[in-house]
Structure formats: structure tokens, C-alpha cells
Protein: Helix-turn-helix transcriptional regulator
Organism: Novosphingobium beihaiensis
Amino acid sequence: MVAFVNLISGKWAIPILYRLIVEGRPVRFGELQRAAAPITQKELTRHLRLFEEQGLVTRTVHPEMPPRVEYTITDLGRTLQPTLDSLAAWMRTHGATLSHTK
Amino acid sequence: MVAFVNLISGKWAIPILYRLIVEGRPVRFGELQRAAAPITQKELTRHLRLFEEQGLVTRTVHPEMPPRVEYTITDLGRTLQPTLDSLAAWMRTHGATLSHTK
DNA sequence: CCCATTAGTATCAAAAAGGTGCCTACTATA
DNA sequence: TATAGTAGGCACCTTTTTGATACTAATGGG
């Protein structure tokens, strides 16, 4: 199970993946960045590259200017939906209960 | 949802919590350490303190020698079960698919 | 010429996580 | 007497992760 943590590791992994799943369509880089704000470009890029490597996401480059790159959830990535739904539901129900002490 | 990642952050959080949930009874420190091997004392302690702070786990010290400290999942902690079950199921089904490139 | 746009890369710095070794208190056992 | 076992604390160090900033390419608009 340690591997799962590895997979969704990184502060931003879950929000990014969830967004891609919810949208179900190709999503542009900038859109993802706004969805997972305040993530930096660098971190978003890094996460997306990891997901691509794991086969969770597909990357499509449109050779235009300004550049347009779209990310789409794969079938494998989509299998995460029930789990992420469960996460989201838990957060809605119990999220407020948690202390946010740093 | 970033908060969730925060909650279960750390390589070991999920295995520890899951063990506590599955057992459902007070579990000793050493037992948890073996369950989440090869975690170090320091990290296990840190995680358990965090869980305690979040109200997911109760810590009970028995003033004996050698010391005995037991950790028990709380009601709040138990609400994580369906989500963690889902995680575990996903790993069983798709875990092997993932690349483990570092 | 200046500026904005997009999806990055490069570089540097800071913060978080993790590892190691040493110490304790008391008991039991060899 | 020496040693092991328990659940840590504390100090020090290395590695990993995250973040902040500046920079770029190719085009369109003013």
C-alpha cells in the first residue's frame, strides 16, 4: 500500500487527477494550474510527467503559438474515480473536523 | 482536497492507519512498527502524534516497566475505512500495472 | 518597439522527510 | 554482572520535495 502513496504522492496529485477525471475531456495546462492553485508551473509539470509515466494521463501537444498542450485521463486513470470520490466525500464530511495546526 | 493529502501525508500514514482500523483494538507501538516495517521509531512516533492531534487515534500510556503504550483508532478514524478499503482494492487490481521507475 | 500569451526549462533556496546513533528507566533472565 | 526488551527523546546529518524567480519561443496587437 506504500506504493499507492507513492503514486498519488505530492501535495497536488489528488486535486490534479480528480479534475482530469471529473472533466473527462482534454484539459489544458493552464486550466489545471488554475484548478490546483496555487501550484507552480514546475510542480504541475512534474506531476503531469509522473502521471504520464504511470499511464494515468495522456499528453497531447498542439504545435501552435502560443503553445497548447492538453492532458486527458486514460482508462487506467479513470479506474481511480471511485477511490477519489470516496476521498472527496470523506473530506466534505469530516474535513472541517481536522485541526490545521502546522 | 489538498488537506486530505496533508492528513494521510507521509509514506507510512496509510499502512499505519489501516492496520489500526483492521485490528480495531489497542495496538502497541512495537506491533505497529513491525506492521509498517521498515519504518523507523522516529517516523512512527511522528505519524502517531499527528494522528492523535487530528483525533484519528488515541494514545494510552500504561505506567509499567518496560513501558507499554497503546494506540487505538477513534470513531472519526474509523470513518476512513471505506476510503482506505477502496485504496487497498485499487492497489490489488492495478498496483502491478504501475511502473516503479524512480 | 513593447507587451501579452502559453507551457514549459534552468537555477537557486528553503522546508519537509527520513536515517543513525546515543541515552533513559526498570525488570527479567542468563 | 551483563544483556535484552520497550517506547520513546535528542542531536546531527543527508536526501527528497517543494517553492520562487527568471528566462524562452513564436506570434499577434497597439
About this structure: Chain B has one domain: 2-86. Residues 62 and 68 of chain B are 5 Å apart (CA to CA). Helices of chain B lie at 2-7, 13-23, 29-35, 41-54, 75-78, 81-94.
